[in-house]
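Hello Y.,

Per our agreement to keep a running log of every chain we model this quarter, I'm adding this entry. I've kept the format consistent with earlier entries: sequence first, then predicted structure.
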Amino acid sequence: MAYSRNPQLPRIRREAALLVLQRGWSARKVGRYLGYHHTAVIGWVRYMERYGIRPIPTFSSRPKRHPRVLPDELVRKIIAKRFELRRSAEVVHFALKEEGAVVSLSSVKRTLDRHNLLKKRWHRSRHVSPPRPHVKHPGDLVQLDTIHLLRKDGTRVYIFTGLDVRTRFAHAWAFERANVRTALCFLKRMKKVTPFAIKMLQSDHGSEFSRTFSQRARVEHRHSRVRRPNDNAHLERFNRTIQDECLDALPKDAKVINRNLPEWLRYYNEKRHHFGLNLQTPLQVVRSY
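Predicted structure for the entry above:
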């Protein structure tokens, strides 16, 4: 940081240097005239001789070199040990300590960070969500989630699920990827099949339900609390039901799953009785409004 923020100082330095260069004043005379040390005036004159007649800016007063800077040999040793072990800064520091090197852990971390050799932890920013509504009508709150089905080759199939809290009316669809684009595609499909307007969405903090999804969904969107799956308890129960009664009997292939989902969803929404709805079906509850 500069030692002064006076906006007039660059112009004053220029005028002081011109008194020496154009009028022939000595640096001591200019210093006494303006109240500066003559060595400062000499520095301004050298700056103007090098860069021409212009305002002389205020430079940072930060020291060019720290008095306790690590020796170059020790810095090279830290970097070499990092490439040799390919481990964290704590491990590198412990290994150097065993070899007799005197250096602190913070110095090891700082050295690795300056050479872009330190993998920093990424902290996800929290979403500021609107308050949870008091659910009285269909569409007041629709919960969203994603089921991950792992194949033998390590790839996954992603089942997007959505459920209306008031009526338990549900929808699901399989995709090969889980991102904002597929999440928006699923929401568009769900809006078409639900017999009511969706007023608010609620999901976890998955990357497919990021701020970009919130901005493009055209529906108010809130996030559940971190590590609180019971905030989406109705949908979590539906996820278990759809896996037990449908997905577990099907191969982990998105096309095959999507061919079988519509029939099972019709059964779930129109024929399956729910204890949470006094043994009514979701469609019967929807029609009661």
